[in-house]
Amino acid sequence: MTASEFDERFDAGEDLSSHYDLDNATRPGLEQRRVSVDFPVWMVHRLDVIARRLGVTRQSVIKVYISEKLKKEIL
């Protein structure tokens, strides 16, 4: 099937899920990369308090905070 045929069938509302290779699907730009960051003890304690209150991990709190700040930055 060509790309234009695929587009036409998609636009017509046809279920094309059998044509997807979901086992090998990726989301470009969302791959994970491990980084190491050192925080002062007082920050770790504050992050832990917030994480416990929200019922999530410290890592989740850090990711959300950094994500929110990065979204506000104008490039």
Tell me roughly what share of residues is in helical segments: 40-55%
The low-confidence parts are none
How many distinct beta strands?
0
Distance separating the two termini: 40 Å
Shape: elongated
Task: Profile the largest sheet.
Answer: none
Mean pLDDT: 92
Q: How many individual helices?
A: 3
The radius of gyration over CA amounts to 21 Å
Series of H and E elements: HHH
Structural class: mainly alpha
- Report the portion of residues in β strands: under 5%
Describe this structure in words.
With 75 residues, the chain is mainly alpha-helical. The chain has a domain of 41 residues. It is 51% helix and 0% strand. The protein contains three helices and no strands. The protein is elongated and about 60 Å long.
Sequence-ordered SSE layout with sheet pairings:
Elements: H1 3-11, H2 41-54, H3 58-72
What would the keywords be for this entry?
75 residues, mainly alpha, 51% helix, elongated
Summarize the structure.
The protein has 75 residues and is mostly helical.
